[in-house]
Design a protein that fits this description.
With 130 residues, the protein is mostly helical. It has a domain of 62 residues. It contains 5 helices and no strands. The relative contact order is 0.09.
């Protein structure tokens, strides 16, 4: 599944670059006005009329392929099967083998109360209470 995702990403990049190039090659409707006053810009590689048909058809085909690849990438990423978190990847046997904390020890998220001087702590070692 990972190979298909990589291949589709490469195809997506190539289609997007070719779509940009095809759109930039086409001349707009305003280019005909410049040709009426003697400008030589209307003579393109494909001729004055042929470029519109060829480039517009090619642009349409590339755009359709671009959207199909976009939808395919979205479908693949939405249906990816992976564990939701680190806790989901741990099996029940591994949890049973873990040592339990001592009964008098503080739990992971517990904080000592302000002004608490525990075993071996000196009052000057603690930050001042606010």
């Amino acid at each position: 599944m990972e190979n298909i995702n990589s291949i589709l990403l490469v195809v997506q990049v190539l289609l997007s670059i070719s779509l940009i190039v095809l759109i930039l090659l086409q001349h707009g409707k305003g280019a005909d006005a410049g040709a009426a006053f003697g400008s030589g810009a209307s003579a393109s590689v494909f001729g004055a009329r042929g470029s519109g048909n060829f480039l517009s058809r090619t642009t349409t085909i590339v755009a359709i392929l671009f959207f199909v690849v976009c939808l395919s990438l979205a479908y693949i990423s939405a249906n990816r099967v992976s564990p939701e978190g680190v806790a989901d990847s741990v099996t029940a046997g591994e949890v049973d083998d873990m040592p339990l904390p001592e009964s008098g020890a503080m739990q992971g998220g517990d904080m000592p109360p302000a002004g608490f001087a525990g075993e071996g702590a000196v009052e000057s070692d603690l930050p001042p209470a606010q």
